[in-house]
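Work Package 3 (structural annotation) set out to generate three-dimensional models for the target panel prioritized at the project kickoff. During this period the team completed the workflow that converts sequence records into discrete structure tokens, so that structures can be stored uniformly alongside our sequence database. As a representative example, we reproduce one entry of 242 residues exactly as it appears in the project archive.
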Amino acid sequence: MKIVAMIPARYAASRFPAKLMQDLNGAPVIVRTLEATMNTDLFDKVYVVTDSDLIEKVVTEAGGTVIKSTQEYECGSDRIAAAAQTIEADIIINVQGDEPFIEKESLKSLIDVFKEDSAKEIDLASLMHPLKDQDSIENPNNVKVIVDQQSNALYFSRAPIPYLRDQDQSITYYKHKGIYAFRKEALLEFPQLQMGPLEAAEKIEAIRYLEYGKKIKMVHTDQDGIGIDTLEDLVKARNNWK
């Protein structure tokens, strides 16, 4: 089983433009994410997929391998699906470029899903971790996920799900971490699927897979890390960098 990591790295992020080029204690965020991914020693190859000459330059100087995007894409899955057509792989893990704190244990748990899936029933796997406070639960930037008894995703939402009608009930809310592991064929199929009404409403690409009946295995992790979506996140990352 050949396993590769692909890191989509768009320069013009809508919420925090050029965030991947921001300094994180001596190196750009994208380079820190590349280093963290490579240092796990889990992958046959790690690629950064980018539309930016500037990102290509810093990644190459850091010893990374770049696949250059040739057009604009609506989401990271579209970007890496186009790049994946040119590479040999069985499992492709999409590591977001703004996740410099990604660690080995979480990535290994995603890979293990496919090693244990001898029937090849699972199309993709992703991570979730518990949310501890109400502000995090209500924050629409934190995508929530609910699962069935086998930890297969039922739905993703920016709203707090499930709705707690009975306040006496105890429920754990889970945040979806946007790190995906795909069977290559599932990833290549993604751009061929039309966006459905639920994905269009929530702006969550994982919903597209559910709308087309794909099986997404969610893996519990207690490792939250710091994804860099805002300037405040960057400050927090700098303060927590070791």
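The first strand starts at residue 3 and ends at 9.
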